[in-house]
Amino acid sequence: MSLDFTAIDFETANSSSASACAVGLVRVRAGEVVAKTGWLIRPPAGHDAFFELNTRIHGIEARDVADAATWTEQLSDIASFVGEDILVAHNAGFDMAVIKRACEATGDECPPYRYACSLQVARRVYSLESYRLPFVAAEAGFASFAHHNATADALACAHVMVDAARRAGAADIVALAEATGVRVSQIAPATAGRAASAVVAA
């Protein structure tokens, strides 16, 4: 096994998890970044209002996504990039909820991705005053990036996981999860109106 994964980050238009307005994706193979991409998304209908607070954070406005692909139109592009990888995100529960809720809002089948959280890993590997991504990334040697740009955040997350794996002596994401006592989880389909993410042991 080797340290292969895809780091992912979403930005949202408002407080709804379904309101994805941007995604960033970074592919890691054998502990090295080999590809990165990102794009704007037109949020699903009913979840497409842009709150001032969100725009102040990431700088994206409704006019910026007017001609962007919809969630349904771009979901296959995410799937093509990710392939069979385990996803990694900083505060992964948020990003996995975006995938799940956006799919629920559009009626698309939600991919059952396995995922790990770099925030949880960082709390076990580093001793920091704050575990927000900029502080964790700086500790991992990735000190300067455009925080809340989806691709930049995904890249920072990728560097955190690579550094954490090096410090833990872990050869892959599953081994890193085991070494740090973190679980690898999986997005589970909604059942009988109940939204949940099934957690499986790493």
Question: Would you give an account of this structure?
Answer:
It is a single chain. This protein has helices spanning 52-58, 71-82, 92-106, 118-125, 133-139, 150-168, 173-180, and strands at residues 5-12, 20-29, 32-40, 87-89, 114-117, 185-186. Helix 4 packs across helix 6 (150-168) and helix 5 packs across helix 6 (150-168). It has one domain: Ribonuclease H-like superfamily/Ribonuclease H (Nucleotidyltransferase, domain 5, 2-Layer Sandwich), CATH 3.30.420. The longest helix is centred in the C-terminal third of the chain and has 19 residues, at 150-168. Mean pLDDT is 93; it is low at 191-202. The chain is of the alpha/beta class and 202 residues long. It is built from seven helices and six strands; from the N terminus they run E-E-E-H-H-E-H-E-H-H-H-H-E. Helix 3 links the parallel strand 4 (87-89) and strand 5.
Describe the secondary structure blueprint for this structure.
Elements: E1 5-12, E2 20-29, E3 32-40, H1 52-58, H2 71-82, E4 87-89, H3 92-106, E5 114-117, H4 118-125, H5 133-139, H6 150-168, H7 173-180, E6 185-186
Parallel strand pairs: 1-4, 4-5
Antiparallel strand pairs: 1-2, 2-3, 5-6
Helix pairs in contact: 4-6, 5-6, 6-7
